Amino acid sequence: MNPIVAPVKNVVRAQISFNRLYERPMGVPAIALWHGDSGRGKSTAATHIYNQLEGVYISVRSADTVTSLTRRMVEECGGEPLNAKSRNIEYIIRHLSLNNTPLFIDEADYLMNKNEMLDTVRDIYDATEVPMVLIGMNKIARRIESNRQFFNRISEWVEFKAADLEDVKTVANCMMDDQITIEEELLERLRKSTNGEMRRIVIGINKIISLANANELLTITSRDWGDAPFHGY
Ligand SMILES: Nc1ncnc2c1ncn2[C@@H]1O[C@H](COP(=O)(O)OP(=O)(O)O)[C@@H](O)[C@H]1O
Ligand SMILES: [Mg+2]
């Protein structure tokens, strides 16, 4: 919806954690886990970072098996999937190792459904040691603890938190041209009513901007907004 990625705190922390994977001392594993509620901007942050680096990004699906997952990974690596999963895994390992390509695995909660999938990801990591980011919802952090072998390979943990007022301001500034100002009180109302969820904050700011444009307002106050909902009708 919005091509601009606002440098909110979660994005900055994710970027720092990602950079650390490259700066790690010998022997420190290079897997990061980004976790947090839906709509907090995890996938957006991942997309933003992998686009800069030409990394490989894959989103796990609920129905995935090792076969379907590795086939899609091969495709994401620019290859033609083969029938034998061992050959596909080999291809992925070779491709990632060649350029030290980072791998982003979104919706990683679904990996937890089948041990074999998590083990395959671990095999790929162990064979390549390329920087890897697993992205999941809040429960993933606890669930992954039960798989010690995987857990021990995670060196960076980032929790995507609810946006605070400063974050809402950052998003607003990215979305508006310089001429329009949104009163702080209105942004705080937006933060509260969205529980700091990025998805709804972006929708709300869009609606506020539309109101400003429709009424040719340069400053939009909480009073201008009135009681209208930020989201929905
Ligand atoms: N940093 C950001 N800058 C601008 N918009 C963002 C940002 N983060 C999230 N969004 C908006 O919020 C929506 C939901 O974010 P998403 O990354 O899909 O969340 P998650 O993966 O945590 O569920 C995105 O489609 C985008 O519109
Ligand atoms: Mg997501």
Structural summary, described in words:
- Helix 1 crosses helix 2, helix 3 packs parallel to helix 4 and helix 8 crosses helix 9.
- The chain is α/β, with parallel strands linked by helices and 233 residues long.
- The longest helix has 18 residues.
- It has 11 helices and 7 strands.
- The strands form 2 sheets. Strands 2-3-4-1-5 form a 5-stranded parallel sheet.
- It folds into 2 domains: 151 residues, P-loop containing nucleotide triphosphate hydrolases (Rossmann fold); 61 residues, Helicase, Ruva Protein, domain 3.
- It is elongated.
- Helix 5 links the parallel strand 3 and strand 4.
- Bound molecules: adenosine-5'-diphosphate and magnesium ion.
- Magnesium ion binds next to helix 2.
Overview features:
12% strand; 233 residues; 7 strands; elongated; binds magnesium ion; Helicase, Ruva Protein, domain 3; 2 domains; two-stranded parallel ribbon; alpha/beta
Annotate the secondary structure layout.
Layout (H helix, E strand, L loop, with lengths): L8 H15 L7 E5 L6 H12 L2 E4 L6 H11 L8 H15 L3 E4 L8 H14 L3 E5 L2 H7 L2 H4 L2 E6 L5 H11 L5 E2 L1 H11 L3 H18 L3 E2 L1 H4 L8
Helix pairs in contact: 1-2, 3-4, 4-5, 8-9, 8-10, 9-10
The chain binds adenosine-5'-diphosphate and magnesium ion.
